[in-house]
Specification:
heterodimer, A: 4 helices, rod-shaped, B: 2 domains, elongated
Chain lengths: 101, 140
């Protein structure tokens, strides 16, 4: 393939460009250390993606348990109020509860 | 670790919001609180047992009539206590009072629908019999 003049000079530059990076003997060890410490996966999005199933299940469970707890507390309160008002009603017609001074 | 605690916090918050929402939606105490504050038994009966106008009027008339009859029982029990009559005589008057109350509650129940009438009796009759457990009224 024939390249335009500009590209040919660029190709020459690239051909002459050599990189000789210094090798890091501890590279592999550093990578494993970063994996072990969780570095790089620190964002909440990453955490959520990794544990999505558990988090969603925990949310559903918390909402269900919270809802049940709230309903049970309201039910207990309602029954207690019913009993109190029934007592007030009965005592309002019960001659035995009249205090004699 | 920070993400774990953040997630845990969000889950707990979701549970708390769910709990509060269900509590507020299911709590039916506002009307009762008002009835209790005013000690308005008839208002409570009307809302609790879903009485229509005719039922409410009939039950209110029975209630007023019973209060007038009860005045006699009250006076008799009160006088017996003041006189320090024998426990047997006071117990006899109290038994008559219980019979009159039970009869009144049964008449009221008959004016309601059968299901509500039964629920009414189940709710009020235990308070007639729990009198002894609550102790005697003050008598000087």
């Amino acid at each position: 393939m024939r390249l335009p003049q500009d590209y040919r000079s660029l190709a020459r530059v690239l051909k002459s460009w050599s990189i000789a990076p210094a090798s890091d003997p501890g590279f592999s060890e550093k990578v494993w250390r970063r994996i072990a410490t969780g570095e790089g996966g620190d964002s909440f999005g990453t955490f959520f993606r990794v544990h999505r199933a558990v988090i969603v299940a925990a949310f559903i469970l918390a909402i269900a348990l919270g809802g049940w707890g709230g309903w049970a507390a309201a039910d207990a309160r309602t029954k207690s109020n019913q009993m109190d008002l029934a007592a007030i009603y009965v005592h309002s017609v019960d001659a035995r509860w009249i205090r004699t001074r | 670790m920070k993400n774990f605690f953040l997630t845990l916090l969000l889950i707990l918050a979701a549970g708390a919001v769910s709990c509060g929402t269900f509590y507020l939606v299911n709590e039916e105490t506002q009307g009762w609180r008002e009835s209790a504050r005013e000690r308005n038994s008839m208002a409570w009966l009307r809302s609790e047992f879903h009485l229509d106008k005719a039922q409410y009027a009939a039950i209110r008339d029975l209630y007023v009539q019973f209060l007038q009859e009860r005045a006699g029982n009250t006076a008799a029990i009160s006088a017996a206590r003041v006189r320090r009559d024998s426990p047997g005589e006071v117990a006899g008057l109290e038994a008559a009072c219980v019979r009159a109350m039970t009869s009144h509650f049964q008449k009221v129940a008959l004016l309601m629908s059968p299901e509500e009438g039964q629920r009414y009796l189940d709710m009020v009759l235990p308070h007639v019999t729990d009198y002894d457990r609550r102790g005697q009224p003050v008598s000087n």
